[in-house]
Amino acid sequence: MPLSIVTALVRNLIRVPAAVLRSRVAKDAEVLALRHENAVLRRQIARVRYESADRYESADRIWLAVLSRLVPRERWRQVFAVTPTTLLAWHRRLVSRKWTFTERRHPGRPPTAPTVKQLILRLARENSTWGHRRIQGELARLGYSIAPSTVWEILQSSGVAPAPHRSGLTWRQFLTTRAHGIIAADFLHLDTVALGRLYALIFIEHGTLRLHLAGVTAHPTAQWTVQQARNLSMTLGCRMDSLRFLLRDRDTKYTDASDAVFQADDVQILLSPPQAPKANAICERAVGTLRRELLDRILIYNEAHAQVVLAEYIRHYNQHRPHQSRRQLPPDSTKPPAPATVTDLQAHRIRRQPLLGGLINQYQRTA
Questions:
Q1: What molecular function terms (GO) are annotated for this protein (predicted)?
Q2: pLDDT computed for residue 283 by the predictor
Q3: Which of the four pLDDT bands, split at 50, 70 and 90, describes residue 52?
C-alpha cells in the first residue's frame, strides 16, 4: 500500500479517540453542524456527480467503506455523499484486497528453455510435414521430455502454420531436389583490343556449380555449336546419365541439331521466357562473376588468348574458389567441410600462388 494512503488512514484513526472523549452534547452539536455544512455544499456544487469515484482518493474510499459498516444502511444516503451501491462496491474491493490468498499461490509450470524452443522451430522449418506430435516424438528420441501441447503452443506463438498448410514444396526445395539433374548454358560475348567480338559458350551444373568452357569463337555457327555440345557430352562422360534438363535462353545460336545432342542422352530442353534472364539465374550469376573477377580487369587480344585466359580462370573457379552455397567448398571438392578451426599463424605460413600474372591469387597453408 502506498505511503500516502497509510498516512491518511493514520490521520483519520487519530481523530477517533478525540471524538470518543468528547461529551455527548458536543458531539451531537458537531454532527448537526457537519450535516448542515454537508447539505450546503451539496446545494452549491449540485452540478458535480457525487456518484463519481474520481473525486475520492484511495484513502478516502477505504475510510468511508469502513465507516459504512458502523452506520445503518438506511442512513447511508443522508450521511455519505455517494450512493449505497458505490459504498458496497468499495467494500467488496476492500474485502477482495484482504483475501488474495497469495500465500497459496504456486509459481506454476517452469518456462521452456530457449534452446528447446529454437530446436522445435528448427525441426518445424526443416520438416514441413511434421506436426506438433511428430516434433514431440523426435524431441523425446533426442532426450527432451516435453508435452505435445507445449510444442503446439510454441509453434502457434511463433506463427508456424499447422503441418497440412505448410507441407507443400517451396520453389527452393523443388529446385534443390532436382539441381543435380539440371545443366544450364549461356553465350558470353567478349570484346578484344581491336574491337572484335568473340563469343564463349559456357555450361554450369546446378548441383555442383561446376563450370565448363565449351569453346570460344568469333563466328558461332550451327556446326560449331553442335560440335561444342558433343565435346561437352564426352567431357561429362557417365555424369551425363544423371542429367535430365538443359536450361537455356532462346538465342538463335542454338539450333535443333545442338539440342538433338542432349536429347539423344534423354536430356530435355527447357527454354527460359523471352527477356527473362532471372529464369536462368545461376548461369547468369556465373557470367557476372567472370566479368567482375576477370574480363573487366584484363584486355583480350584474340581468340586464342581468350581461350587460355578463360580456361585458367575456370580451373581456379572449379578447384579452388570457395562457394557459399557449397559451404565454402569449390565445385570439384567432394570431401565434407572441415570443422571450423583457428589456424596458428606462428606454426604455419600462408603461401600465395598468383594466376594470370597476379590478377587472381590462390592461397595455401604450408608448414
A1: nucleic acid binding
A2: 94
A3: very low
Label residue 266 by pLDDT band (50, 70, 90).
very high
The answer to whether residue 108 scores a pLDDT higher than 70 is no
Helix (H, G, I), strand (E, B) or coil at 358: coil
Range of the domain at 127: 114-168
For β-strands 349-355 and 268-271, DSSP reports them as: unpaired
Rounded CA-CA distance 188/288 in Å is 10
Confidence of residue 39 (pLDDT cuts 50, 70, 90): low
Q: Where are the alpha helices (DSSP H) in 104-200?
A: 114-126, 132-142, 148-157, 163-166, 171-177
Distance from C-alpha of 288 to C-alpha of 186, rounded to nearest angstrom: 12
Using only the alpha carbons of the chain, give its radius of gyration: 43
244 neighbors 268 (Cβ within 8 angstroms): yes
Give yes or no for a contact between 48 and 55, defined as CB atoms under 8 angstroms apart: yes
Instruction: Confirm whether 360 is domain-assigned.
Output: no
Q: Is 266 left (phi over 0), alpha (psi -120 to 50) or beta?
A: left
Distance of CA 296 to the CA centre of its chain: 37
Q: Is residue 126 domain-shared with residue 218, that is, in the same domain?
A: no
Query: Is 340's pLDDT higher than 50?
Result: yes
Structure-block grid coordinates of residue 115: 534452446
pTM of the predicted model over 0.70 = no
pLDDT of residue 141: 83
pLDDT above 80: residue 195: yes
Claim to verify: residue 92 and residue 218 sit in the same structural domain: no
**Residue 259 and residue 207 in one domain:** yes
Examine the domain organization and report whether 259 and 304 are in the same domain: yes
The crossing angle, in degrees rounded to 10, of helices 148-157 and 132-142 is 120
User: 141, 168, 195 — which closes off a domain?
Assistant: 168
Position 181, amino acid:
G
| Nearest Cα to Cα of residue 206 among 315, 320, 283 | 283
